[in-house]
Design a protein that fits this description.
393 residues, binds guanosine-5'-triphosphate, binds magnesium ion
Length: 393
């Protein structure tokens, strides 16, 4: 029996692969994959991007590129290969066999990050549910991560049908159990939500692409110190705090998990309950990283997820954050509508802010106060401007 080679010190090294259907306009697909990989704790060991109109059924990239990738992997002594594209179980297996290393795809990578970041019991259960559901789709054709544990990579033939049946039953049972537990938590939250509803707070929720600066803005608005960092999915669990707008106004602000292109559907499903809870808001602050090259695509993605969870009819402010990174003469509110339902978005109030430096935050608070005044529940609130000395204190 061969001995396992000694584990290399430091983080696992990953070679990144991105396949585009058409010639890419920029290297942004790889840039985001880099961010995802480092957020999951990988060190980067080489990158490869290529154009392919149709994925190869067996290996996604085709034999010529696979050979090239093999050379790159051994030259850069990578431990893992990460694909930006969704791989079928058979493609993943063939690639692993050819490269002799674990291969993961974008969905697997995002699930890894979520698994690392989940803090609350509910968050952990949601991620586990998403992971098991993803795994269940991989049980087709007799290859699973479970097989890796029992048989190992490269063992000829898959596990017998009986084994697959057992694995599937085990997975199904676990999935059912998690769903029941999450359902119970959801009902508890519903009760809490009703209780909160009676208190009549004006509820504001932050939404946006991951890394847009939601948590930083949350801290700026509520004078809190929740975790904000230059990594994707720094926030997984929702945080809700009261925040000050004016003496008679009871307002709450919620920070939520960020969105990303091709967010695995199992994750949206798993997080739906928490998101739905948060998105019972009176107003959404859609935080956009105004300095992001893919800003339009990111905004479109957020609108798509909001639509999917049925939150696209909640009034929305567009917050163009990180204005400090933009050239001073660029007027952020011009040409920042995004594509898609432009008409709906054109009417959304928009603000340029820097959550980091505080520029524009007071103006945003004023607008929030106006939004509260426009709400029939707060008709008795005096329409004086909020106490700005309090705000900047
Ligand atoms: N220059 C600049 N950086 C900012 C600003 N706001 C946030 N950042 C930085 O952007 C990075 C991401 O900020 P977060 O607040 O964690 O972003 P988030 O939207 O909560 O991200 P996730 O929770 O990962 O989805 C951090 O490094 C922040 O310091 C800003 O106005 N200007
Ligand atoms: Mg955050």
């Amino acid at each position: 029996m061969s001995k396992k080679p000694p584990q290399p010190e430091g983080p696992e090294r990953a070679t990144l692969v991105s396949v585009q259907q058409r010639r890419p306009s920029s290297g942004d697909a790889l840039a985001e994959l880099e961010q995802l990989s480092t957020s999951a704790g990988y060190a980067l060991a080489g990158e490869m991007s290529c154009v392919r109109a149709r994925p190869d059924a067996a290996t996604y990239i085709g034999s010529g590129k696979l050979e090239e990738l093999g050379e790159l992997v051994s030259a850069s002594s990578a431990d893992t290969i990460i694909f930006d594209n969704a791989l079928s179980p058979i493609q993943q297996r063939n690639l692993e066999k050819a490269l002799g290393k674990p291969v993961i795809d974008r969905t697997g990578l995002i699930l890894e990050i979520f698994a690392r970041r989940a803090q609350s019991a509910e968050g952990k259960m949601q991620v586990e549910l998403a992971r098991l559901e993803f795994l269940a789709t991989r049980l087709v054709r007799g290859w699973t991560h479970l097989e890796r544990q029992t048989g190992g990579i490269g063992v000829r033939g898959g596990p017998g049908e009986k084994q697959i049946e057992l694995d599937r039953r085990m997975l199904d049972d676990k999935i059912k159990l998690l769903r029941t537990r999450l359902g119970k938590l959801g009902r508890q939250r519903m009760t809490q939500r009703r209780a909160r509803g009676r208190t009549g707070a004006f509820r504001v929720a932050l939404v946006g692409y991951t890394n847009a600066g939601k948590s930083t803005l949350f801290n700026a608005l509520t004078k809190s110190k929740i975790y904000a960092a230059d990594q994707l999915f720094a926030t997984l669990d929702t945080t809700t705090r009261k925040f000050y707008l004016a003496p008679q106004v009871n307002a709450t602000l919620s920070d939520t998990v960020g969105f990303i292109r091709d967010l695995p559907h199992t994750l949206i499903e798993a997080f739906k309950a928490t998101l739905e809870d948060t998105l019972q808001a009176d107003l959404l602050l859609h935080v956009v990283d105004a300095s992001a090259p893919m800003l339009r695509e990111q905004m479109d993605e957020v609108h798509a997820v909001l639509h999917e969870i049925g939150a696209d009819d909640i009034p929305q402010f567009l917050i163009f954050n990180k204005s400090d990174l933009l050239p001073v003469n660029l007027h952020v509110t011009n040409d920042h509508t995004g594509s898609g339902d432009i008409e709906a978005r054109a009417s959304m109030p928009r603000f340029a802010v820097s959550a980091l430096t505080g520029v524009g935050v007071a103006a945003l608070k004023n607008a929030l106060f106006d939004a509260v005044l426009a709400d029939p529940r707060f008709q008795s609130v005096s329409p004086a401007l909020p106490d700005t000395t309090q705000i900047s204190a």
